[in-house]
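$ ./design --mode recover --in tokens.txt
reading tokens...
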């Protein structure tokens, strides 16, 4: 494998990442670095946060030097359309012009789809820590992105929103009963964009930590659980998945994307 320069785009606001670190939880950027380095030790990383970076114009000038870009998760909701979210969408549009290979994960996929003319709305049901029974469709089975991936799989996931309209040339590659679009592919000019609603780069152990970290929000604000007992039962369900999960299979989409840019 050759050396590759990767730009990681942090989707969370600085305040949320600060809260993560105080709770002893790695940021999504750090999780991405760890997972990617496990797959290929010859990657070099730069990091950008379009919501808060003061040097974003300088970052834009350097975009063509990157072999690939990965845009990770966030606790934001795209339809809130705050100034920080608008900055992310505008930066994604610039990335789609200048970076030839983009992997957009969860929030990143929602930003990529919105920037390209698609649509994201609040989902009828959320994924909290895990997505079950993701099915690769015929388009996905023949796509390099899902090479060697076992069909009908579970994955770490954490999302309250979903893609409801693809960009004009978008192709859905995978779905489950909760989200019609779990994996997708589309192009903007010469740029290839791969999207995932789930998180192959995040371990189930981190998902459990995130649930515990967000438990008050999940009960009081999100109304995803009635009480602490329901949360504890859900964590037990995820821990059963940990016992049977295969790390290599979990992260195979990351490997396929890296292989595709090498």
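writing sequence...
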């Amino acid at each position: 494998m050759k050396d590759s320069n990767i730009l990681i785009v942090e989707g969370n606001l600085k305040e949320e990442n600060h809260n993560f670190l105080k709770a002893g939880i790695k940021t999504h950027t750090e999780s991405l670095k760890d997972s990617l380095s496990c797959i290929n030790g010859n990657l070099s990383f730069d990091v950008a946060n379009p919501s808060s970076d003061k040097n974003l114009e300088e970052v834009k000038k350097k975009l063509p030097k990157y072999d690939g870009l990965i845009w990770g998760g966030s606790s934001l909701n795209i339809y809130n359309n705050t100034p920080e979210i608008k900055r992310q969408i505008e930066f994604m549009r610039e990335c789609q012009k200048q970076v030839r290979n983009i992997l957009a994960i969860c929030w990143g996929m929602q930003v990529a789809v919105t920037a390209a003319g698609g649509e994201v709305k609040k989902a009828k049901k959320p994924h909290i820590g895990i997505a079950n029974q993701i099915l690769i469709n015929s388009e996905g089975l023949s796509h390099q992105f899902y090479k060697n991936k076992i069909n009908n799989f579970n994955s770490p996931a954490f999302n309250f929103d979903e893609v409801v309209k693809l960009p004009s040339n978008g192709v859905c590659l995978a779905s489950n009963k909760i989200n019609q679009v779990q994996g997708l592919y589309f192009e903007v000019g010469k740029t290839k964009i791969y999207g995932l609603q789930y998180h192959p780069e995040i371990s189930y152990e981190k998902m459990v930590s995130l649930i515990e970290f967000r438990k008050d929000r999940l009960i009081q604000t999100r109304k995803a659980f009635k009480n602490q007992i329901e949360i504890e039962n859900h964590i037990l369900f995820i821990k059963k998945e940990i016992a049977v999960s295969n790390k290599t299979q979990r992260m195979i989409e990351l490997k396929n994307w890296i292989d595709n840019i090498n």
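exit 0
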